[in-house]
Specification:
single chain; alpha/beta; Glutamate Dehydrogenase, Chain A, domain 3; Rossmann fold; 5-stranded mixed beta sheet; 5-stranded parallel beta sheet; 17 helices; binds NADPH dihydro-nicotinamide-adenine-dinucleotide phosphate; Glu_Leu_Phe_Val_DH; glutamate dehydrogenase (NADP+) activity; Glu/Leu/Phe/Val/Trp_DH_C; Glu/Leu/Phe/Val/Trp_DH
Length: 446
């Protein structure tokens, strides 16, 4: 590794103790910058790498709320505004009991490069809370969201920082957050949040965008090898927003997703996932994948292990970070898996990535490229809000597909340019970095 990259990595590790996922995300990016720093040493000047690895602003706040029993609960809220070189900070809010500063920083750091890849003029940020929405009533979720926004509202705006959803934050939560923002500011500022309801500023295809984009990316990888997804079996993890629409798009393209999961276990359905049933259970009843298996004779439920044990052609992780370890990756490769397109953020451990990258028959797309359709369509939502227009489903999906194709092609072109043909990791990291770094150099030392 270039000595400058090594130094930045060591200093960042020293300055951020106890933040393993942040350092994991950082290491993966910095390692892949070696060829560009060798060729363009100016990117290592002006403290650029030191500034890139330090968030511009980190906000941590108390979120008190009253539960249905009348007891006071206290959670912690976060917003990390990582980098605004390309535009307003943009990135989702995650509500999950595992959320801490380390998790939000890893997500915010990834978001910088992902957003740059979309070419939509958006900077990188992320936020959330250790609030666990599981088992909470609608009233409790509303009171939590209102309290969370009562602090967050002073830091966000359609030209400064535009949050959206992530794990645990879907249409219901965005609705409560938007309502409170409007109440506190007295302004109907549609572009301050994305993932809004269709009747009040949301965009068609935003709900579907991340999963659809993930599978489109897998399709482009297959086409690049002269193949298609038709007839291929897929393992999908998760059963939330990204997983459901990855399954939908895979089915539309003639592939057969046979798994899904949640934090209680996973399902193998030999007939292929019945999407109507899964949507009914997950989107309407807020149920579990075990309920799906109980209602579907062709499906079996497993409360241990992971979906990656099932022999498939395509792996579509769509749950959470580090959900594919080295053994899982080896099992996938041994069973003949040819395509891995990440819908979740950093779902593969570094060892798993190494297994995929060194398998000659596997095309591997990192999350920051393959799941960029979500944030890209959020930028389309902002565009519609700013122009007070409303796109059709067909047009929004066309735009999404064009964007995913461009990201795919940019990754391959950059990988080729830097002597790593076919390597989507180098391609994504260097393409994103170059765009952000050029803007940062132009803006001076700030
Ligand atoms: P949802 O909350 O809708 O769904 C998350 C799914 O993953 C649920 O099935 C959940 O199960 C499961 N899951 C979450 N955490 C864990 C865990 N620790 N162990 C096992 N299962 C888990 O979230 P999304 O679908 O929106 O997000 C999924 C992934 O995609 C995340 O990594 C997110 O960062 C990424 N992503 C999302 C985007 C979006 O537009 N929504 C955009 C880009 C990336 P359970 O219900 O049991 O918790």
């Amino acid at each position: 590794m270039h000595p400058k990259l090594e130094k930045v990595l060591q200093e960042t590790a020293h300055r951020n103790p106890g933040e393993p996922e942040f350092l994991q995300a950082l290491t993966e990016v910095l390692i892949s910058l070696d060829p560009i720093i060798e060729r363009h040493p100016e990117y290592a000047d002006y403290g650029l790498l030191e500034r890139l690895t330090e968030p511009e602003r980190q906000i941590i706040f108390r979120v008190p709320w009253v539960d249905d029993n009348g007891d006071v609960q206290v959670n912690r809220g976060y917003r990390v505004e990582f980098n605004s070189a390309l535009g307003p900070y943009k990135g989702g809010l995650r509500f999950h009991k595992s959320v801490n500063r380390n998790i939000i920083k890893f997500l915010g750091f990834e978001q910088i490069f992902k957003n740059a890849l979309t070419n939509q003029g958006i900077g990188g940020g992320k936020g959330g809370s250790d609030f666990d929405p599981h088992g909470k009533s609608d009233n409790e979720v509303m009171l939590f969201c209102q309290s969370f926004m009562t602090e967050l509202y002073r830091h966000i705006g359609d030209k400064t920082d535009v949050p959206a959803g992530d794990i645990g934050v879907g249409g219901r939560e965005i609705g409560y957050l938007f309502g409170q923002y409007k109440r506190l500011t007295g302004v109907h500022e549609a572009g301050v949040l994305t993932g809004k309801g269709l009747g009040w500023g949301g965009s068609l295809v935003r709900t579907e965008a991340t999963g659809y984009g993930q599978v489109m990316f897998a399709r482009f990888m297959a086409e690049d090898r002269g193949e298609s997804l038709e007839g291929l079996t897929c393992a999908v993890s998760g059963s939330g927003n990204v997983a459901i629409y990855a399954i939908e798009k895979a089915q539309q393209l003639g592939a057969k997703p046979v798994t899904c999961s949640d934090s209680d276990g996973w399902v193998y359905d030999k007939e292929g996932i019945d999407l109507d049933l899964l949507k009914e259970i997950k989107e309407h009843r807020r149920g579990r994948v075990s309920d799906y298996a109980a209602q579907r004779p062709s499906a079996e439920f497993h409360d241990s292990g992971r979906v990656w044990a099932v022999p498939v052609d395509v792996a579509l992780p769509a749950a959470t970070q580090n959900e594919i370890d080295e053994n899982d990756a080896r099992t996938l490769v041994k069973n003949g898996c040819k395509y891995v397109a990440e819908g979740a953020n950093m779902p593969s451990t570094p060892q798993a990535i190494e297994v995929f990258q060194s398998a000659p028959d596997v095309s591997y797309a990192p999350g920051k490229a393959a799941n960029a359709g979500g944030v890209g369509t959020s930028a389309f939502e902002m565009e519609q809000n700013a122009s007070r227009s409303r796109w059709s489903f067909e047009y929004a999906e066309e735009r999404l597909e064009a964007m995913m194709r461009e990201i795919h092609n940019d990754c391959l072109a950059t990988a080729e340019e830097y002597g790593k043909p076919g390597d989507y990791v180098y391609g994504a990291n260097i393409t994103g970095f170059r765009r952000v770094a050029d803007a940062m150099l132009a803006h001076g030392v700030i």
